[in-house]
Design goal:
homodimer; about 290 residues; alpha/beta; FAD/NAD(P)-binding domain; 2 domains; seven-stranded mixed beta sheet; five-stranded parallel beta sheet; 8 helices
Chain lengths: ~290, ~290
């Protein structure tokens, strides 16, 4: 099957205002593309009680505006899929997006993944790839017979923990999700706030607010939003956001970005404007490649 | 009256999508501001038969979208005035905008003036301030008793030519505007395409497509859009557009820019997004000044 692999012109990761605006502009330029969103869609937008500063709509709720945006991509028959991306690999002349068991391949990318409200733990960033992981499918097999902890803020993360519990010797879980009995039997729930990932050159443990500690060799973190520089390696950041130029190009050729993940202000109009620029930049990149 | 002069927080120059988006965001931040537009408003937008790539509105005409935008600023009771800015002066701690006989003063500016479709003439840029002028009120008195030419693409420009005809010895006019008999008596109409402003360190003449020439000491140019770096001195440009950073700040402190005048792509969503960023940057600038 590998030789029949479809390669899209573009994949847009994220379906907030930035990703959706990128999509309607990619459609205008006749790109062969797909947009990947998560459920619930853009919670920050949905929760806004009243929006007055997106030009063209006055006194509109976040829910209504979100409906207008989704109606727009539906009217244009845009290929929208609810799928969470675990990891993105640079294959030289194309990019592969890993989503559970499935892979999508494209010549260019627009990262419109927003920002995470959840803070990074001290010690976490330093130990990425040395015990800290954001992808159970990718890194789970490394922890066969070992002890790991999962910090879980998503439902998909809960499923990943079930998967890990079949591989690892012991699994601790810290979560704000509901767990069913089936899972509870397989893991040890810790109802304390973690404050630090410990270890020098590899993960050795997880420390909690009460100064207690558990010894683990792996820490899997599942936040609603994976920081884009952790989704894909080799992307330069600046002040905790993806570094982009005025064409919304990141430091990696063929990879564009838009919306909150590129920096302040975190606003709908800014995000939509950047999504438009990113799509037109991607279109011009694809045209040159052909 | 001078000591009672009102100083606005902000003046937004231009009422296309960039200026209007800046206005709705300046309103959201409670700035004391005014937005200056021209008639007809944003012809490029009005003439678009069908727009599909401004997120939230699908299959809408430029006229309808323009109405939505204006409806938005009306609903928010924004101070919108149809006034053309002739010149902007940097007064150190504030900016003065000259409009005919009237002056408005503000602590910060957003330039959202779009781009001109009309080409600059060879020789024009080199001789700005040395005989080439964009403002009859400002520079007219320098040409008392002299011979000048006016290149006129606006109705206000026609009025400026009438004013000049009372000062100068002789006035030539090249125009695509209708002229009434009253003016025709005072000026000499030239029905040929100008191709170059001539002169070494000062204007000496105007050359036409048929290689004919007239001797003049001043050339007044009235285009629909005055390039922003000619509206105000000291603004850095890059590839024929205003140079801005990602906060939409120009090279001059307190002056922000948005929309087509900052560069490609010339698109509504990009312009609106930049207008939003510019307004929020201006708000934060004003807050620091207070």
């Amino acid at each position: 099957m590998a030789n029949q692999e479809k390669v899209y012109d573009l994949v847009i990761v994220g379906a907030g205002p930035a990703g959706l605006s990128a999509a309607v502009n990619a459609a205008a330029r006749n790109l062969d593309f797909v947009i990947l969103g998560s459920d619930p869609r853009s919670p920050k937008l949905l929760q806004a009680p009243e929006i007055n500063n997106y030009l063209g709509y006055v006194n509109i709720s976040g829910k209504e505006l979100s409906d207008k945006f989704f109606n727009h991509i539906q009217k244009l028959d845009i290929d929208y899929r609810e799928q969470r991306v675990d990891n993105i690999y640079d294959q030289g002349d194309r990019f592969s997006l890993l989503m559970g068991d499935e892979t999508i391949t494209a010549h260019s990318l627009i990262l419109a993944v927003g920002v995470s409200n959840e803070q990074t733990l001290p010690g976490e960033e330093e130990l990425v790839g040395q015990g800290v992981s954001y992808c159970a499918t990718c890194d789970g097999p490394l922890y066969r017979g070992k002890t790991v902890a999962g910090l879980v803020h998503t439902d998909e993360g809960v499923e990943d923990i079930i998967y890990l519990s079949d591989i690892a010797e012991q699994v601790y879980i810290v979560t704000d999700r509901e767990l069913d009995d089936n899972i509870v039997k397989k893991v040890e729930i810790i109802d304390k706030e973690p404050v630090r990932v410990t270890g020098e050159n590899k993960v050795e443990g997880l420390k909690f607010e009460d100064d207690s500690m558990i010894e683990v060799e792996g820490v899997f973190v599942f936040r609603r939003v994976t920081p884009p520089d952790k989704l894909m390696s080799g992307l330069e950041t600046e002040d905790d956001h993806l570094k982009v130029n005025r064409s919304m190009a990141t430091s990696k050729e063929g990879v564009f970005a838009a919306g909150d993940c590129t920096g302040f202000p975190y606003q709908i109009g800014k995000a939509a404007g950047e999504g438009q620029i990113a799509a037109l930049s991607a279109a011009s990149y694809i045209q040159k490649k052909r």
